[in-house]
From TrEMBL:
Gene: fur
The species this protein was found in: Shewanella livingstonensis
Family matches, as SUPFAM superfamilies: Winged helix' DNA-binding domain
Gene3D superfamilies the UniProt entry points to: 3.30.1490.190, Winged helix-like DNA-binding domain superfamily/Winged helix DNA-binding domain
Protein name (database record): Ferric uptake regulation protein
Binding site for Fe cation: 84, 86, 122
Cofactor(s) needed by this chain: Mn(2+); Fe(2+); Zn(2+)
Main localization, broad class: cytoplasm
Family to which this protein belongs: Belongs to the Fur family.
Coiled-coil annotated spans: none
Residues annotated to bind Zn(2+): 90, 93, 130, 133
Cofactor note: Binds 1 Mn(2+) or Fe(2+) ion per subunit. Binds 1 zinc ion per subunit.
Compartments it resides in: Cytoplasm
Length: 143
């Protein structure tokens, strides 16, 4: 934890280490500030909500986490420890799935090239219904 903070140019503090440790150990990949705050407190850590906001802003600026905003009002954070990926989001239950599709990346690159651009980064979010929610919607409509 300390090496990552140091390499990112951030001062090493106990709160930053605790928060980063929490992010690396939690199973959920996309967390709101409130999720992080509640998770830390459930583990007995006494980091205030304002401190979590501040630390996550520093982590984002340092490139440790990415902030994602979907169609909800909440921002979601995820560690930048995996390759670039896109997202599928269920409109009913909020299930969020990461996926990588080389063909999509190829097509985006070709589209950019066609228009005289070079892609620096992109964000692709697709919205729909997971199979569980789709099944529930179908059974509800047949009643």
């Amino acid at each position: 934890m300390q090496t990552l903070l140091k390499d990112s140019g951030l001062k090493i503090t106990m709160q930053r280490c605790k928060l980063l440790e929490f992010l690396t150990q939690v199973n959920q990949q996309h967390l709101t500030i409130e999720n992080i705050y509640l998770g830390l407190n459930a583990q007995g850590e006494t980091i205030g909500l304002n401190s979590v906001y501040r630390i996550m802003a520093h982590f984002e600026q340092a490139g440790i986490v990415s902030r994602r905003v979907f169609e909800s009002e909440s921002a979601f954070y995820e560690l930048n420890n995996k390759p670039h990926h896109d997202h599928l989001l269920c409109l009913t239950c909020g299930k969020l799935i990461d996926f990588i599709d080389p063909l999509i990346n190829l097509r985006l690159g070709l589209a950019a090239e066609h228009h005289g651009m070079s892609i620096h980064h992109h964000s692709l979010n697709m919205y729909g219904y997971c199979f569980d929610c789709l099944q529930a919607l179908k059974s509800k409509s047949t009643r």
